[in-house]
Design goal:
Blueprint lengths: L1 E5 L3 H12 L3 E5 L11 H7 L5 E4 L5 H13 L5 E4 L5 H12 L4 E8 L4 H4 L2 E5 L2 H14 L9 E5 L3 H28 L7 H6 L10 H12 L15 H11 L5 H13 L5 H14 L8
Parallel strand pairs: 1-2, 1-3, 3-4, 4-5, 6-7
Antiparallel strand pairs: 5-6
Helix pairs in contact: 3-4, 7-10, 7-11, 7-12, 9-12
C-alpha cells in the first residue's frame, strides 16, 4: 500500500516513519523543506497511485479545512481522505459532505500516542463506513501497537464518531492529569515527605493508580525534581472545552473534567505547583510547548 501524508509535524513526522516500518509506503508533504518528501500537494498526488488514500495530519480548524478543500478540488472519484488531526466532530460532517458530493471517501480518526507513538504505537478511533474502514485497515494496523487489534483500534461508528471518541478521551486525560498534579502539590507542601520523586515511583507497580501518565510524571520529576524550569501556565488545545460543551448539551454531569479545564484557566492567573505538573505531563506525552519559569 502507498499513501500520501500531509503534515509532518510532531505527530505526522513520527507516523510517517512508523508506517514505513510497518510496510506502508508513504509520500509525505509539509511546508517545512527539511522534512518534506515533495515540493507541493500537487507533487504528492502524482506520486500516490490511484485510487489514492491521503492522510491529513495538520492543526485542527482553519488549516485542516483549507487542506481538505484543496484536496476536494484535486482528488478523483474513489480517492479517500483520512483526517487524523484533532478536528471537532462537527467539522467532520461538513468535510464528508463536501467530499462525498465529488465521489471522494472520508474517514475521521482520533489518534492518541503523542511523541511516543513511533516507539509504542498509537491508539486509534475511526469513524466512517465499514467499507472505508476495511480499506484503510493496513494503515491502522501499521500505526497501532503490536497485539490484538481490539486493544488499540476501534471502528467507533459513522463519520464524526472517531473524533468524538478522541474528544472524550482527551477530556478524561484532563481529569487524570489534574488529579496527579493536585496529589503532587499536596505531597510537595508537607515537610515530612523527604523523597517526593520516590513516592511517585513507588506507585508505578502494584498500585491501583499506576498508569503511563504516572510513569511520565516520574520521568518529569527525574529530569527536573522541583519543576524549577517550568512555568505554571497550561494551554488547552480545545478538546476539553468541547467535552464540557457536549456534557452540557447532553445533560451529562462531568464535574471532574470541567474542574480540570477551569484549573487550566486559573493557571494563567496565579502561581501553582499543581499546574506546573500538568504542564510537565503535557510536555512529556505530547511534546506540547511549556512556559519557562518566571
Amino acid at each position: 500500500m502507498h499513501i500520501g501524508l500531509i503534515g509532518l509535524g510532531k505527530m505526522g513526522f513520527n507516523m510517517r516513519e512508523r508506517l514505513r516500518r510497518g510496510g506502508v509506503e508513504v509520500t509525505g508533504y509539509d511546508r517545512n523543506p527539511d522534512v518534506t518528501d515533495v515540493a507541493s500537494v500537487d507533487d504528492l498526488l502524482t506520486k500516490v497511485p490511484a485510487p489514492r488514500i491521503i492522510w491529513v495530519m495538520v492543526p485542527a480548524g482553519d488549516i485542516t479545512g483549507a487542506t481538505i478543500n484543496e484536496l476536494a478540488d484535486k482528488l478523483d472519484r474513489g480517492d479517500m481522505v483520512i483526517d487524523g488531526g484533532n478536528s471537532r466532530f462537527t467539522e467532520d460532517q461538513k468535510h464528508a459532505e463536501l467530499l462525498t458530493a465529488k465521489g471522494i471517501h472520508f474517514v475521521d480518526c482520533g489518534v492518541s500516542g503523542g511523541v511516543w507513538g513511533l516507539q509504542n504505537g498509537y491508539g486509534l478511533m475511526a469513524g466512517g463506513t465499514a467499507g472505508d474502514i476495511e480499506r484503510a485497515l493496513p494503515i491502522f494496523d501499521a500505526l497501532r501497537p503490536e497485539g490484538e487489534r481490539a486493544d488499540s483500534f476501534v471502528h467507533v461508528g459513522g463519520v464524526g464518531a472517531g473524533h468524538y471518541a478522541k474528544m472524550v478521551h482527551n477530556g478524561i486525560e484532563y481529569g487524570l492529569m489534574q488529579a496527579y498534579a493536585e496529589g503532587y502539590q499536596l505531597l510537595a507542601s508537607k515537610d515530612i515527605i523527604t523523597d517526593l520523586p520516590g513516592t511517585f515511583a513507588a506507585w508505578q507497580k502494584g498500585t491501583v493508580v499506576r498508569s503511563w501518565l504516572l510513569d511520565l510524571l516520574v520521568k518529569a520529576l527525574n529530569e527536573d525534581p522541583g519543576l524549577e524550569k517550568l512555568g505554571d501556565y497550561v494551554e488547552d488545545s480545545g478538546e476539553g472545552r468541547w467535552t464540557v460543551e457536549e456534557a452540557i448539551a447532553n445533560a451529562v454531569p462531568a464535574p471532574v473534567i470541567t474542574a480540570a479545564l477551569f484549573a487550566r484557566f486559573a493557571s494563567r492567573e496565579d502561581s501553582s505547583p499543581a499546574m506546573k505538573m500538568v504542564s510537565a505531563l503535557r510536555h512529556q506525552f505530547g511534546g506540547h510547548a511549556t512556559q519557562p519559569a518566571k
